Amino acid sequence: MPAAPPPAAADRAVALLHRLGAARIAHPGGTLLAHLQRVRARLAAWGARPELQLAGLCHAFYGTDGFPVTLLPLDRRGELAAVIGTEAEAIVHLYASCDRKATYPALGAPGAVFHDRFTGRAHTPEPRQLRDFAELTAANELDLARRDPALRERYGPQLLALLTRVRPLLSRAAWLDGHAILAPSPLAHD
Predict the structure, then answer these.
(1) 41 vs 23: CA distance, rounded Å
(2) What are phi and psi of 29, to 5 degrees?
(3) How far is residue 13's CA from residue 55's CA, in Å, rounded to a whole number?
């Protein structure tokens, strides 16, 4: 199992999140800060490497296609990189830049094109970037689905279809967790 992020980096990231108001921003399941911490914990439970865990903790800094609140504008990316490192920040940026409507339908297919909502450009990320993106997407969406039964009822089938498409990109732990949340066995309720 990969190590946890260096405590100093995670602590600095949480301090920055507090300073930028994440603990006061409403988000499904509580506050944005609580959500980000749960996403990081889920990634850690799945055995994600430290950089991906830090990206999970900070994945909403630039807003996302599904959550437009930004904590830092893109011209201040260096500030986040100084706190969590350039690799983790690059994952955060890739995640934030995703145009979901244009990207998700083919995500997981060989040579799938990733559409950047900030630039309008399309590109094909490296395999590790795609795996990180898929794992972070799963952790984020599964936290929401676990916390909000109405959201799970409404979007669960679409989310399960997405996770099924990207299954080759997901860790076994992520896939099993997603399946348990989104398609629990009927026997589990007996």
Answers:
(1) 17
(2) 90, 15
(3) 10
The pair phi, psi for residue 21, each rounded to 5°, is 90, 10
The pLDDT tens digits of the residues spanning 120-172 come to 999 999 999 999 999 999 999 999 999 999 989 999 999 999 999 999 999 99
Q: What is the pTM of this model?
A: 0.92
CA distances from 65 to 57, 73, 81 (A): 17, 15, 21
Residues 6+ away with beta carbon under 8 Å from 83: 9, 12, 13, 16
**89: which 2 tokens?**
């920040």
Residue 95: CB atoms within 10 A of its CB come to 23
Please give the DSSP secondary-structure letter assigned to residue 76. G
- Where do runs of H (alpha helix) occur along 5-126? 7-19, 32-45, 50-58, 77-84, 86-97, 100-103
Question: How distant, in Å, are the alpha carbons of 14, 113, 173 from that of 83?
Answer: 10, 30, 28
State the Cα–Cα distance between residues 8 and 61, nearest whole angstrom.
19
In terms of DSSP H, where are the helices of 98-171? 100-103, 127-147, 149-165
Cβ of 8: how many Cβ atoms within 10 Å? 9
